[in-house]
Structures are given as structure tokens and as C-alpha cells.
Design goal:
alpha+beta; two-stranded antiparallel sheet; 6 helices; Glutaredoxin
Length: about 170
């Protein structure tokens, strides 16, 4: 017990120092990816900045940008998230070829300024594929990727492969 009492304060001090060394404003989540992907529909996020950062990351990593437009209110958005979560190979294919950014569309924040760049969006979730210069390559409703009350694995794989960067 005596050794534990001596080691615990040292451990806590080292842990605190390590925590303080992470620059302010950066996430302190252990095990978080360094990728710039935005994985939640958040009405408080600056969508324009998220897209700009994703374009820079896509240029740096030779990938494309995949924008998923939707919101927490959207049941099919949650279905798509669950489908990806259930298929790690699909996540790997997506993340190898795309920097993914979720853009919130809700009553709280419609992100009109950003979304107006890409033409009308009539259903959700909606997928937008951008090249490394931010040019719109595809605007796609996800209905064609659905199967029953979920999504179709083969169609999603084909979609991701078709719009992946060449090479």
C-alpha cells in the first residue's frame, strides 16, 4: 500500500503534464484519428471551414471529398451511419479514397451559404463528391443506394469505387 501511495501522485502529475502539453483547442480524445473527417451532423459547426479544410486534406492525401448532407432528425441518415458501422470494409474503402464531412441541414442551421454552391438538394441524406479543387463532381440522392429498409452493400461499394480518385 505504501508503494501505491508514493506512485499515485507521480502518475497523476505526469498525466496532468501530458494533458496540458496538448495545444489549446485541439481534441484531447485518446485514440482519435488525425484525419479531418467530420463525423457528426452538428448545427454549430462552421460548414464552410469544414469543407475548406477537407479540400486541403484531400489535396495533401490525394483523395476526394465526400460531403454527407443531413441531420440528426433524418432517420435515413442514421440508417446510413449504421450501415457503414456494420461494414468495416466499406468504411475502409471510403476513408482510403475520400475525406468525409457531414454537413448539417436542420431548422437550427440550414448551411445555405455552403450548400448553395452545389445546387438543389431535395432529399436526405444527400451525397456530394468534390475533386481536390473543390469542384462538384456528383450530387446524388441516396435512394438509388437503398434496399428495403436499409442500404445495398454492392451498390455502395460500386458508388465509392466509381467516384474514387484515379490511380
Amino acid at each position: 500500500m505504501w508503494a501505491f501511495k508514493r506512485i499515485l501522485p507521480v502518475f497523476l502529475i505526469l498525466l496532468t503534464i501530458g494533458y496540458l502539453l496538448v495545444p489549446a483547442g485541439e481534441s484531447r480524445t485518446i485514440g482519435q484519428s488525425t484525419d479531418l473527417a467530420v463525423t457528426k451532423y452538428d448545427p454549430k459547426r462552421n460548414a464552410a471551414q469544414d469543407v475548406d479544410e477537407a479540400i486541403k486534406e484531400a489535396q495533401r492525401t490525394h483523395r476526394r471529398v465526400l460531403l454527407e448532407v443531413g441531420g440528426e432528425w433524418c432517420s435515413w441518415c442514421h440508417t446510413l451511419d449504421g450501415f457503414f458501422d456494420a461494414h468495416p470494409d466499406l468504411i475502409q474503402l471510403r476513408d482510403r479514397n475520400f475525406v468525409t464531412v457531414k454537413i448539417n441541414f436542420s431548422e437550427e442551421n440550414e448551411n445555405k451559404d455552403v450548400l448553395s454552391r452545389y445546387g438543389p438538394i431535395e432529399s436526405y441524406p444527400h451525397l456530394l463528391v468534390l475533386d481536390t479543387d473543390g469542384k462538384l463532381l456528383l450530387s446524388k440522392e441516396t435512394g438509388a443506394l437503398e434496399s428495403g429498409k436499409s442500404y445495398n452493400l454492392e451498390k455502395l461499394i460500386a458508388f465509392l469505387k466509381e467516384w474514387a480518385p484515379a490511380g
